[in-house]
From TrEMBL, chain A:
Family to which this protein belongs: Belongs to the selenium-binding protein family.
Family annotation (PANTHER family): METHANETHIOL OXIDASE (PTHR23300)
GO molecular function (one): selenium binding
Domain of life of the organism encoding this protein: Bacteria
Cited InterPro entries: Se-bd
Protein name, UniProt field: Methanethiol oxidase
Pfam families according to UniProt: SBP56
UniProtKB/TrEMBL annotation, chain B:
Family: Belongs to the 2Fe2S plant-type ferredoxin family.
Cofactor requirement: [2Fe-2S] cluster
Protein origin, superkingdom: Bacteria
The keyword Transport is annotated on this UniProt entry: yes
Keyword list, A-Z: 2Fe-2S, Electron transport, Iron, Iron-sulfur, Metal-binding, Transport
Protein name, entry field: Ferredoxin
Domain 2Fe-2S ferredoxin-type, residue spans: 4-97
InterPro entries xref list: 2Fe-2S_ferredoxin-like_sf (IPR036010), 2Fe-2S_ferredoxin-type (IPR001041), Beta-grasp_dom_sf (IPR012675)
Length: 451, 121
């Protein structure tokens, strides 16, 4: 788990890679939009192969009410305060996209059985900060910032909520949203005083489902924004055009000295790479372009829909999903300008290439994923967002989501589905639920930032 | 207090008297009807139900496109009954709420109200 000497996390990405293997994994599972009138919950999954309950859900923490739509989550503290012995990685923050609530969950008192510590009321957030539609949670030192995609009425661009370490609302974090039209994900690199944010859509646009026609009506984003992190204001935007429709997940290299970062443009199904060039200017380029595929029965080509990307802790590999095609891919990005495809596996998807994995019928496609710190195990789940699931994979109502583990080879490249691991959320006690983002108790490949 | 009668056809025709000034989600849940919901301001369609007879005022909803409205969907967290009504509730009523946008595109008049163009001809 966390380093022994001081605060949470690890002194460096290199130290994180050497951490003990993960034994527990937390993933959110939803009933919102499924027809089952139960709260969403945080599932604890046993990922210790020596344990008799390996590959099973061993605990479920239900939220206090129904209809949250838990989605992404983040820690109260990460490696950014590794030098602060007064801090610890104790609380996981679980926003409800629809309810606007923030659930603060204590995972430290009993890591196998997390407990609810506090709820920040959604109405209070609307009243004090005029924000709704929470998404990405990051910490910086003792402070926490969360991107919200809308104002209190669900209109774009929203902004950033600032919480103190006791989870009290400080107010809005940003000093200005500039000309930004939409919000979504963000990541920052403190040594370069930069934050990059991406664009999905207004909550009122994406929450009811995906009307493809609204992309042409400019209801969905196609820009990336570079911020002066200390001044808390955007300073430069890149218009990505048709190459960058729905730019979603944003990741910098873990190496805090690096200026290289990446974004997955979901609908264009491209990876955008940016870096600070020798002339001190930010540059961007498209480095991966997943071609549309023909569906066996459809008249029109099908985009991959790259809803997530992840960078291995050694910054050598980029992982991406094609939610509609059904494949996970691994690219060697040792030269970030020239990625090389080194691995690919199918699980679910609409192309019919892998309808059954380890005996379980997969509804949905690869969607969210979390990589072990050593880069060898990739845990992949299949649900995107309740309303969007219902449009593209209506059978997920009866089948639920599934968690698959992919063995990855960090030395030579390559991916292979692990045959001994599968968690079928279709068999949950209250009925089929849908699993989404996952995190480890000690920090993972999408949680920690180094100062 | 003006009241209307709500009949829920897929709950064995159960009937409820509701205050005409209050959202149907609140008045029905208070009387024990188990209903899904999410945002509670008309933005997310989790609480959508299908109106089979009667009329509602749902001017505050911003989630439905014009095709969904034409198919009878109402957003219970903001909709108020303006007559006696009959509803189908829950996901059993959602047969036409979701569509695959690649296979079944919306016509210009079927978009959400703020971007729809009038139906031609």
């Amino acid at each position: 788990m966390d380093g022994a000497c001081c605060g949470p996390g690890y002194a460096s990405p290199q130290e994180a890679i050497q951490a003990p293997r993960e034994k527990l994994l937390y993933t959110i599972a939803i009933y919102t939009g499924t027809g089952i009138q139960k709260p969403d919950y945080l599932a604890t999954v046993d990922v210790d192969p020596e344990s008799p309950t390996y590959s099973q859900v061993i605990h479920r923490l239900e939220m206090p009410g129904i209809g949250d739509e838990l989605h992404h989550m983040g820690w109260n503290a990460c490696s950014s305060c590794h030098d602060d012995g007064s801090m610890s990685r104790k609380y996981l923050i679980l926003p409800g996209v629809r309810s606007n609530k923030l659930h603060i969950v204590d995972t430290a008192t009993d890591p196998r059985a997390p407990r609810l510590h506090k709820v920040v009321d959604g109405a209070e957030i609307k009243a004090k900060a005029d924000l709704s539609g929470p998404h990405t949670v990051h910490c910086l030192g003792s402070e926490i910032i969360i991107s919200f995609l809308g104002d209190a009425k669900g209109e774009a661009p929203g902004g950033y909520l600032h919480l103190d370490k006791e989870f009290n609302i400080v107010g809005r974090w940003e000093n200005s949203m500039g000309d930004i039209k939409f919000g979504y994900d963000f990541w920052y690199q403190p040594r370069h005083n930069v934050m990059v944010s991406s664009e999905w859509a207004a909550p009122n646009t994406f929450m009811p489902g995906f009307d493809l026609e609204e992309v042409g009506h400019l209801k969905y984003g196609r820009e990336l924004h570079f911020w002066d992190f200390e001044k808390r204001e955007p300073i430069e935007s890149f218009y990505l055009g048709e190459d960058g429709l729905l730019p979603l997940e944003v990741k910098f290299h873990h190496d805090p000295d690096s200026t290289h970062g990446f974004c997955g443009a979901a609908l264009s199904t491209n990876v955008i790479h940016w870096w600070k060039d020798s002339d001190d200017a930010w540059k961007w380029e498209k480095i991966i372009d997943v071609e549309n595929e023909m569906h066996p029965e459809w008249p029109i080509p099908l985009p991959g829909v790259m809803s997530a990307i992840l960078i291995s802790m050694d910054d050598k590999y980029l992982y991406l999903n094609n939610w509609l095609h059904g494949d996970m891919r691994q690219y060697d990005i040792s030269d970030p300008h020239n990625p090389k495809l080194t691995g690919q596996v199918f699980m679910g998807g609409l192309l019919g290439k892998a309808p059954i994995v380890n005996g379980v019928e997969v509804a949905g496609g690869p969607q969210m994923f979390q990589l072990s710190l050593d880069g060898r195990r990739l845990y992949v789940t299949t649900s995107l967002f309740s309303t969007w699931d219902n449009q593209f994979y209506p059978e997920i109502r009866e089948k639920g989501g599934v968690m698959v583990m992919i063995d990855c080879d960090p030395e030579n490249g390559g991916m292979k589905i692990n045959e001994d691991f599968i968690v079928d959320f279709g068999k949950e006690p209250n009925g089929p639920s849908r699993c989404h983002e996952s995190r480890y108790p000690g920090g993972d490949c999408t949680s920690d930032i180094w100062l | 207090m003006t009241t209307h009668t709500v009949t829920i056809s897929n709950r064995d025709g159960a009937t409820f008297e509701v205050d005409a000034r209050r959202p149907l989600l609140d008045t029905l849940r208070e009387q024990g009807v188990d209903l899904p919901f999410g945002c509670k301001y008309g933005g997310c369609i989790t609480c959508a139900a299908k109106l089979k007879t009667g009329t509602v005022d749902q001017r505050r909803q911003v989630a439905l496109n014009n095709r969904q409205i034409a198919n009878g969907y109402v957003i219970l967290c903001v909709a108020r009954a303006t007559s006696d009504i009959t509803l189908d509730i829950g996901v059993e009523s959602h047969d036409k709420l979701y569509r695959n946008p690649f296979l079944d595109p919306l016509k210009p008049h079927e978009l959400k109200a703020d971007i729809a163009t009038p139906k031609e001809g």
